[in-house]
Amino acid sequence: MSAITQEDFQFMNLAYEEARQGYEEGGVPVGSVMSYKGELLSKGHNKRVQESNPIAHGEMNCIYNAGRRPNYKDVTLYTTLSPCMMCSGTIVQFGIKRVVIGENKNFDGNIDFLRSRGVEVEVLDDTKCIELMDRFIREKPELWNEDIADY
Questions:
Q1: Which of 7, 17, 51, 59 is flagged as catalytic?
Q2: Which partner from 58, 70, 76, 77 sits 20 to 30 angstroms from 123, CA to CA?
């Protein structure tokens, strides 16, 4: 595993800004960005509520915004919250080998699944990410449960 770098924190700040934008739009505050060899490739945030699209999670929106690529070698995906199984499956499907997660306190996600498939996973325990998601869950528990399919 590689160490967490200053660059990781910079990209996570961009992902956090995406999450904040989603929150301000009335959606689920999960933001994501992708970098390729240290350069910003794409960004996105959860738009499930805004677009009435059940698969428009933050990671999915970010990957979609990256557009078609021949491969994902040397790509790192940053996400403010540990990815759900749908997003984790997409990460594995496209061969993204490194994922940096802002937090996994509010949702543990599928870190073990990712690691079992050879994905390098780093968790930052970012206070801003934790606090924003915690606030959203307190304010809109029914929307949160809908997002994670916890009925």
A1: 59
A2: 70
Name the one residue in this structure whose structure tokens are 């970098």. 35
Residues in the chain: 151
Q: Beta strands of the chain (E only): which ranges?
A: 31-36, 39-45, 75-81, 98-103, 120-123
Q: Residue 76's closest CA among 108, 114, 107?
A: 114
C-alpha 60/C-alpha 64 separation (Å) is 6
Q: Say which residue the tokens 């990256």 belong to.
A: 66
d(C-alpha 138, C-alpha 75), whole Å: 34
Active site residue 59: yes
Is the pTM higher than 0.85? The answer reads yes
Instruction: Give the single-character DSSP code of 27.
Output: S
Separation in Å, CA 47 to CA 22, 23, 25? 7, 10, 9
